[in-house]
Write a structure and sequence with these properties.
The chain has 239 residues and is mainly α. It is built from eight helices and no strands.
Length: 239
């Protein structure tokens, strides 16, 4: 009997088995911002055979079963998960942004006359970097403290007087914008594939962008499909 169905959402599948994110990454299926989409619809959007995708998920699930358990954000408390996101993904983004912005500017300056897309890549990443910097600050100063208070017995519509639903909607909207920027960068660079003539900086830049995309997908998935729904459920129980 198959463990997966085309009616399941992509986000629920990765929440159940985090290691299956590898399958979706390899197929170009968005499991973070697009996590609420049913698997069948996601396959249709990418012109993929759902039965082939289901088979790949089953194979990867069987392979993973023989390995040590993967990191499971769904097993964490709300506070621990918020702390993990800050210490892991926020730190990574803050570290990578200056390095990648510098390389983006250098590559566009040196090779822009040979490939006009590089100026657009630079500008797109600059916009994403500014957006993520503001976004993470709002999470760290506003939303995550509210979630911690909620789990600790305050928050929600309780003693601090603020609901988390509006900040979460705003963060999800910003996640959508970040996802669109990532998709644009992926397309502009041919899936982060360097041309034969690319210098080492160009190659390092594309490799860095690919890792940045992968981390941001995991980052957004943990918030959209795990942290935020659980926090909203906790708030609903308190009200």
């Amino acid at each position: 009997m198959n463990r997966f169905e085309i009616s399941q959402t992509v986000g629920d599948i990765v929440t159940r088995e985090p290691g299956l994110s590898r399958v979706f990454e390899s197929l170009g299926i968005d499991y973070c911002c697009g996590g609420k989409m049913a698997l069948g619809d996601a396959c249709q959007r990418r012109s993929l055979d759902p039965q082939v995708v289901l088979s790949k998920l089953e194979d990867e699930s069987n392979r993973s079963a023989a390995m040590p358990p993967p990191f499971d954000p769904a097993a964490m408390s709300l506070t621990t998960l918020a702390d993990h996101i800050e210490r892991t993904h926020h730190v990574f983004v803050k570290t990578e942004i200056p390095r990648l912005r510098e390389m983006a500017a250098k590559v566009a300056s040196v090779h822009g006359d040979r490939d006009a897309r590089l100026a657009t890549v630079r500008d797109t990443f600059d916009g994403l970097a500014a957006e993520m910097t503001s976004h993470m600050m709002k999470e760290e100063r506003i939303l995550f403290p509210l979630i911690r208070q909620l789990e600790g017995g305050a928050g929600g519509d309780g003693s601090c007087g603020h609901s988390i639903s509006a900040p979460i909607r705003q963060m999800e909207s910003e996640h959508e914008q970040a996802g669109e920027a990532l998709s644009a960068l992926n397309g502009l660079t041919g899936g982060y594939t360097p041309p034969e003539w690319a210098c080492n900086t160009y190659r390092a830049f594309l490799d860095g962008l690919q890792h940045f995309e992968r981390d941001l997908h995991e980052h957004i998935h943990k918030e959209n499909n795990v942290l935020f729904p659980r926090a909203l459920s906790r708030e609903a129980l308190r009200n």
